What does this fold into?
Amino acid sequence: MSPHEFAFFSFNKSDVAEIYRGLLARFLMQSRLRHEQGLEDVPYPTLLERLEQVLGYSDDDAHRIFHLIEDELWEHSWFSFTDEWAWFRARQEVMKEMHETEEPTDEPHKQFMQRITEKRYEEQFDRYAEELDMSAQPPKPKKHARHKQRKK
It folds into this structure.
């Protein structure tokens, strides 16, 4: 589809708001990844600005939603990390108890280790999560000035 072809859709405003939130989350993720990879920043998408207009969002509304989505993504990242940490710790303990120094290569042994790790993960998840001391969770990374790129 060329950029000059049109497609027409009809959505209610709550659906448009969900689309807006999804596109904003995608923009925030891409911006953060590009920043971490040392790549050039991408400009605030015109489509998001158009959706803000359609939804009747003021600059303050858009700014508030920007930070809400940013906070949701941060929370998701933290819990994803916690989940991965718990799995890593369960696997580490199982490997140690089984006197394994390397991951098994044969399928039956692999599946056996997987089942034991899964059981340990489920039983000890809270203990592993406590190792991270969520109350001392690191501060959020500095927020990009991305929201300032929005045209006023």
